[in-house]
Design a protein that fits this description.
Blueprint (H helix, E strand, L loop, with lengths): L7 H29 L8 E2 L16 H26 L6 E4 L2 E4 H31 L6 H5 L1 E2 L15 E2 L3 E2 L6 H6 L7 H20 L8 H22 L5 H23 L18 H4 L25 E2 L5 E2 L3 H7 L1
Antiparallel strand pairs: 1-5, 2-3, 4-6, 7-8
Length: 335
Amino acid sequence: MKGNRLTTHDRRFLRSILTDLIIFIVLGIPILICEFVIEPFRRGFFCDDETIRYPFRPNTITTVTLAIIILVVPAIILLLVELTLFYRCDRIRETVLLLGYKVPAWLLEFAKHALYFTFGGLLTLAATEVGKFTIGRLRPHFISVCQPQLSDGSNCESPQNRHRYIENYTCVSSGYTLGDVWEARLSFPSGHSSLSFFALTYIAIYLQYKITWRGSKLTRHFLQFTLVMLAWFTALSRIMDNWHHWSDVLCGSVLGFAMALITARYITKEFKTPQSCLRVQLPRQDTCTTLNEIVPTPPPYTVGLGVDDSVPSLHRESNGGSTRSFSNDQYCTKV
């Protein structure tokens, strides 16, 4: 800034930040509506459906643990990689003038990748929430949590309801909260699977093009494998804990994986070739000289440079070893 006035670059930067903030708010609206305004689609069920009669079990990967996996772990990796790259390139003290303040260049690069990552995560979360509340698929432990009771006072243990499709029921949910009953109707797709696969797959792609250490060719791939296995275990735990059907986990994993690829390829647009500190620019050379080619006619810029209507053009040897040059009229005729 000059005095108290914003420069053109600063105004453009603030306009970009404001636009991105509006987009983030718009993406958050459907998520908030699904969580606090509307109810999941009320789906009926068969009492003898064995896929929804599993016992209730606590989460192996809790909400807090999931937050650490998809937020804390990527943030630490992004920060460490950017700091390491700037240190190796001897740019750790480099600053960028932003709104009149000197901001470390590595911090700006970290913030840029964190912005891309957050945007892709919001896309994944919004798609997952819309799927959950639109489908309203019942979780494997639905009968155990809901404990449905029909209008005539019977329940799913009554013989007359064994092969009956139930639509009108109330949940007794003895020993469970209303939140547990709500969650029991949000099985498809798996949010743990979609979010973990998006976050860790995106970071694996990020490492592919950011880590250029030649000391060990397996270090990068080991880190990538560890991240993908962490996402894989998170997804499998949802089936193990009776919180999701296998198809919920499969679709959630595919959704998160696809969102990571789309974000890296079409939003970030920097993951094309591995980055390096060294940027060597080869000098441009005359291809005619390099390839030892003989040009039969002179280039246009030689016209008019000769004396007495002769052009000091490139010479070519005849069979007798003599050389000749073209006059101005001869050159124009050839052109």
